[in-house]
Amino acid sequence: MTIPIGSNPAATAAAFNAQAAANTAGATQGTSTSSASNEMTGDAFLKLLVAQLKYQDPSKPVDSAAFMAQTAQMQMVETLHELVEQNAAVIAGQNSLNALTLVGQRVTYSVGSSTASGTVDSVKLTAAGPKLIVNDTEVPLSTVSEVGTATSPSAS
Predict the structure, then answer these.
(1) Which UniProt keywords are given for this protein, alphabetically ordered (predicted)?
(2) Of 131, 110, 109, 112, the residue nearest 121 (C-alpha)
């Protein structure tokens, strides 16, 4: 007989108590758990699984097929999280590369409700993303609306 995680009230209560204790321990250690409390992490899943196995009815053991399906689903979720992280890293790298190609180019960017323009002198790579340095002003790459060739002083 299949007993999915969460259908056994005793196991669910034990797992929630274990998760609450883990969250409390994380909070006392100064780590942020507010964003993680809404997500099912691999660790929380394992705690639920252990609680389910601990409190299962011996006359109705967990179906091995259901157990394997739950494990496979958890592995799939973890793989998807890794893909999301890798995709974010690739996008960040691509944004940095795009910003570097703008050095020496004339850009038009938004500043509040108005626009400004200037030549990109350099690029500052920050954790929040690349920032173009235009006339000693940091301009986020996302605010650039137009790119053109810089006019050289000798041509004018």
Answers:
(1) Bacterial flagellum biogenesis, Cell projection, Cilium, Flagellum
(2) 131
Please choose, from the candidates 155, 154, 128, the residue with its C-alpha nearest in 3D space to the C-alpha of residue 141.
128
* Cβ–Cβ under 8 Å, residues 64 and 85: no
Condensed to tens digits (0 to 9), the pLDDT of residues 78-105 reads 899 899 999 999 999 999 999 999 999 9
Q: How far apart are CA 123 and CA 93, in angstroms?
A: 13
Q: Which residues pair with 148 in a beta bridge?
A: 106
Fill in the amino acid letter for 89: A
Q: DSSP letter for 144, please.
A: E
d(CA 73, CA 65) in angstroms, rounded, equals 12
Nearest Cα residue to 143 out of 122, 121, 114: 114
Q: Is 99 exposed, middle or buried (0-12, 13-18, 19+ CB in 10 A)?
A: buried
Q: CB burial class (10 A; 0-12, 13-18, 19+) of residue 20?
A: exposed
β-partners of residue 130 are: 125
Convert the pLDDT of each residue in 66-82 to its tens digit.
888 888 888 898 899 89
Q: What is the CA radius of gyration of the chain?
A: 26
